[in-house]
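Give me structure tokens for this 171-residue protein.
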Amino acid sequence: MKKTFYKKFIPSKAEEEAAKRSNTPFQVTHELVEIRDLRPALINPWQIKKVVTDVEIITGKIILSHHEVFEYIFRYWTLEMCNHVESGNRILVVIWDVSDEKSPVKHHSENVYLELGPHNTYTLGWMDVARNTAVNPNDEVGMFWQQRTKFWQQRTKSFLFKVLRHGVLNN
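Here you go.
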């Protein structure tokens, strides 16, 4: 199911009276909710594409946009998992590096996670991938959240990661 924020702009009568009693204005709130997902599956699996910078390799963190996370990751997660991240918590994930499709490499540690980032973004911790994969600045990488299971994934839901092109200039 797709996830989105439900924003509450108009207070209920009780909230309006409580705000009046405490002499504070009503605060607009938002809540993460699930809605029916009517969009068909995409044909290209590499939904999130990034040209990697040297900072992302050094820090082991890739910044993902709100759109990328909500469209390509949260739609496959449970509401509880999404709320955990939205509350400012880190959730550990698994990243399978399938750059060499014949021998994929599993990365799963405290350095592999998704968390809320600054300014309506999210941070994917990929330190183990950055250190153990032939990724260089200006390489284009692709990733997506894999719901279906493969024999080498041992039935875990995870990110699939691949170096798509080496030495792409970010124009």
